[in-house]
Write a structure and sequence with these properties.
0% strand, 81 residues, single chain, mainly alpha
Length: 81
């Protein structure tokens, strides 16, 4: 996991707002003995969070390019030694 900024934390929180109810529904189905349906809901909830974390979207590209550019142009005194 990379360091999260404020926007990254807010994006994760928004994803969890949608993923947690789906996951809890899956747990409820699992507790009632409906393994296939419960497992499906839990898997969907996990995928929602994993895809948000690791999938690169078009809005992520400019930020990634800017980070690489700044890292090459601006060197800290520790980098020069």
């Amino acid at each position: 996991m990379s360091k999260r900024g404020i926007l990254g934390t807010l994006q994760l929180a928004a994803t969890l707002v949608f993923a947690l109810p789906v996951g809890l529904l899956g747990v409820q189905f699992l507790a009632n003995g409906e393994v296939l349906l419960g497992g499906g809901f839990v898997a969907v909830a996990v995928l929602m969070v994993v895809l948000e974390e690791y999938l690169t979207t078009p809005t992520d590209v400019p930020g990634a390019v800017a980070e690489k550019t700044v890292g090459k142009v601006a060197k800290t005194p520790d980098d020069e030694e």
